[in-house]
Amino acid sequence: MKKLSLRAMPALAAILLVAMLATGCGSSGNEGPAANRTDSEKLKVGFVYIGPINDAGWTQAHDEARDYLMAELPYVDASDYVENVPENPTEAERVITQLAEQGNKIIFTTSFGYMDPTIKVAKKYPDVTFLHCSGYETAPNVGAYFGRMYQARYLSGLVAGKATETNLIGYVAAMPIPEVIRGINAFTLGVQKVNPDAQVKVVWTNTWVDAAIEKDAALALLDSGADVIAQHQDSASPQQAAEEKGKLGIGYNSDMGKMAPKATMTSPVWNWGPYYVDTVKAIKEGTWQSTPTAGSLTYWGGLKEGTVDLAPYGPMVPEEVKQLVEQEEQLIISGEWDVFTGPIKDQSGNVKVAEGEVLTDDEMLNMNWFVQGVIGSPK
Description:
By secondary structure, this protein is α/β, with parallel strands linked by helices. The protein has 11 helices and 16 strands. The strands form 4 sheets. It has a 6-stranded parallel beta sheet with strand order 2-1-3-4-5-12, with helices on both faces.
């Protein structure tokens, strides 16, 4: 894999321009950005990452999908990526611009805080297609994509609710934004489906990945009486904290049972590879459109599409719990039922979703309240 430096490479841009002129490449009026490629050219695809590619979490899941993309589509060169790019508008804009200048015709920006810089850079490069993960703004050459992780969160809540003996589950949470709030709520609904007496206590870290802070938060939750630790964080340190204390956990992003085998019962995981392949194909063929199809998102796939799933269970998970999860999963996949189906109350006991009603995609994507059973503030 080729890891890019954070320095601009104007010479490469010049070489690419000469090569384009020599081969007669040009934009076709009927084709979308990046569709105008010759058979002998590689379609360059770039990636911007919030963390390192070996974080065993969010970034690693995207990077494994990048490798999958190149394996599935031989005409794609997705070797350009930049790790550890902060959600600082100036720095993110510079890196995204760099990738565009280096000839990448499709650029995936894979963290929420890259949304505004992505939109800004896209205006300067109308012949480049940009895909932003977890945001909500689109443009003619910018799509917004995400996965219905709340579905896998709900399933993992079933596992956690069956496992807790103290009826207090700790949740180490990154940022108080709808994505994270939605996941906490779905997890709690799963917990309370099987254990109405259990509660989920949330601690905000205000960081996506900081192993030390995450571990401290998990230890504080364990000290307060929690005997299961769940997380919306990129490192496995909350699971490792649970293991050190002889407790159990629910990981996130990838199979964290590999890092904390005695604690981690399962992990809601991402599988971005098929989405990346389908999207790059559509862009190349000129059929891709940025038009939102689910709320404000161009793409929002879930269990049915395989975008989200559960990692293999640890040996401590009973067979009857696995069977229950399988039943609930099939119910979701069938479309007969989804997680945010009423009746659902908020923390104050107010009915937020009436019996028989289901939250719309827009309502889920803008969620800013906690369900009953969550301890903590959604702010």
